[in-house]
Amino acid sequence: MPCPFMGSLNQAFVRNYGSVLMKQYGNFCPIISRNFRTLGQDETKCPFIQNTNTIVADAPKEMTEDIVESARPYSYDKFFNEQISAKKRDYSYRVFRKVSRLAADGMYPQALEGLDNRRVTVWCANDYLGASRHPTVQDAAISSIKSYGTGAGGTRNIAGNSQMTEKLELEIAKLHKKPAALIFSSCFVANDATLSTLAKILPGCVVYSDAGNHASMIQGIRNSRAPKHIFRHNDPNHLKELLSKSPEGVPKLVVFETVHSMSGAICPLEEMCQVAHEYGALTFVDEVHAVGLYGKHGAGIGEERGIEHMIDIVSGTLGKAYGNVGGYIAGSSLLVDTVRSLAPGFIFTTALPPPVLAGSLAAIRLLAGEEGRSLRAKHQAIVRYLKLSLLVAGLPQMPSVSHIVPVPITGADKVALVAESLMKRGHYVQAINYPTVARGAERLRFAPGPYHTPEMIDSLVTALIESFHENNISFNQFLVNGTCRECSMEYKVDMPYEETFKYPMIAT
């Protein structure tokens, strides 16, 4: 007999929640209480809900199938297994190598790899200048642990705002020539929290995002739910075209990076800022892969080109060239205070611990001085040597004018095999594949530093050639009789290491 109450509900709803409804209201139903022969001690309940495993003999087949189906719990492990299996099939599954980087004198940039602690040379760390193992930075961190302990004790609002936190923010603001700065637990959080907050609270804000932006900026824009437009990577003309169609008087954010982490490209910073300001937009510029490495004091591409004043909001990291962990933004006092007061990603996150604060402060001051300038010069020289060595060997490399040296190897399976071959030969570099880069744009990403030597690079290039051959990957020779096929420029390929300081950075 159809029930007028249950029959009026959606079938899927009844299938999922019918048992609950019958348990609550079954004793009010005359059909259940009088005409059904019930099972169990409770004579007022429907036999179908006494036990999910009990099936009435004369019930229609489709009803019993629904009951059995609703009794089965969702197979979570099966779903997770399918997801992981798919990642493994397309070679995008992430394998974290067991690598412990060494910090002792004479050991850096080597590491212990695997369970047998085999020594390898690290080529892909973003500790670009070795600040993490510098004695000045280490001593500052150790001293702060002895004075203040290892942890912050909570958020800055609850546990207290340490003097070291304020000193670090003042130093960052001074570095970027801004009135104020704010530090976060990471630069991912800095980008996400700042962009999501500003784009959300500015009335009618429209965001213009570079197509090559980092996932942290994309996530912040997405979380703001503000309307967005994506302009072609490092293309100020396309940006101008999009901005010209925007309504006047509407708040706008233009978001981009200076140094692209995966290609090594450097943006046309001045042109991008000029276009943004022409249409009344604020510029949000990510200098994560530039701070510590460019400019007289290591403030990044903005300082190197003398246009820091054109950047409205700069974001940076303490976890790469500065050798610690954490991220930050710098900008006007009112803007920074607004983010400090409204961004959940800042408000509800535990503050950076004392050793990180002290180590970061020491690293920024170190790299802003003469030793920092010396390290940057050595860094650029060793980068030039690697690029030239790859060119002479005929190995592929993507055009890069920065310290990042990408070697393209198409196919997630192929790039993983080459990375494994290199590891067997004592060189650690991580294969880069989807979703970090697009499918078909796989690569090895080399980040040589001032503590790598020409001998290490010679060994690496030999290992690369052997790895290409071992995995049946062909490569073309780009240099014939001292002449580059790409640009017809002649280079002195047998120059000593010291002479590379006199030459501009080389890119194929």
UniProtKB/TrEMBL annotation:
GO terms for cellular component: mitochondrion. GO terms for molecular function: 5-aminolevulinate synthase activity; pyridoxal phosphate binding. InterPro entries: 4pyrrol_synth_NH2levulA_synth (IPR010961), Aminotransferase_I/II_large (IPR004839), AON_synthase_class-II (IPR050087), PyrdxlP-dep_Trfase (IPR015424), PyrdxlP-dep_Trfase_major (IPR015421), PyrdxlP-dep_Trfase_small (IPR015422). Residues 120-464 form the Aminotransferase class I/classII large domain. It is an enzyme of class 2 (transferase). Its cofactor is pyridoxal 5'-phosphate. It catalyses: succinyl-CoA + glycine + H(+) = 5-aminolevulinate + CO2 + CoA. One of its GO terms (biological process) is hemoglobin biosynthetic process. Pathway: Porphyrin-containing compound metabolism; protoporphyrin-IX biosynthesis; 5-aminolevulinate from glycine: step 1/1. It holds the Pfam family Aminotran_1_2. Keywords: Acyltransferase, Heme biosynthesis, Pyridoxal phosphate, Transferase. Its EC number is 2.3.1.37. Belongs to the class-II pyridoxal-phosphate-dependent aminotransferase family. NCBIfam families: 5aminolev_synth (TIGR01821). This is 5-aminolevulinate synthase.
